[in-house]
Amino acid sequence: MTTRDAVFPAGRHALYDKHRYSPAIRSDGFLFVAGQVGSREDGSPEPEFAQQVRRAFENLNAVLAAAGATFDDVVDVTFFIVDPANRFERAWEIVPEYWGQAPFPTATVVGVTWLAGFDFEIKVIAKLPERAAG
């Protein structure tokens, strides 16, 4: 059986303990990051959509940093958006603030009806740099 090498960002353990999952698992040189939402430290959502998207990216970046990686190491992204017909363009205006330079990672956008009180979630897979792989 493979041992799970969990990665936790500073200061958010209660959120992950409450919902019984790891924010990321390091395995075979890759980092598999659970969906990150625009939650504040107390777990509540940012009320405004654009700020929720930004906070989701900030939370993602904290998980990546805890593993010794950055968004430049991300190879695959999945976005989940509630009401994408009305929110996709607004989210996509914010993405370049965090996305970096080409070549960009692969991306999939999924429209959903429920995200536990949130409107945006981002899930990624990153190829860890050699120094952080293990």
From TrEMBL:
Coiled coil: none
InterPro entries in alphabetical order: RutC-like_sf, YjgF/YER057c/UK114, YjgH-like
Pfam (any one): Ribonuc_L-PSP
CDD domains to which the protein is assigned, alphabetical: YjgH_like
Taxonomy, superkingdom: Bacteria
PANTHER family linked: 2-IMINOBUTANOATE/2-IMINOPROPANOATE DEAMINASE RIDA, RUTC FAMILY PROTEIN YJGH
Protein name: RidA family protein
Source species of the chain: Luteimonas flava
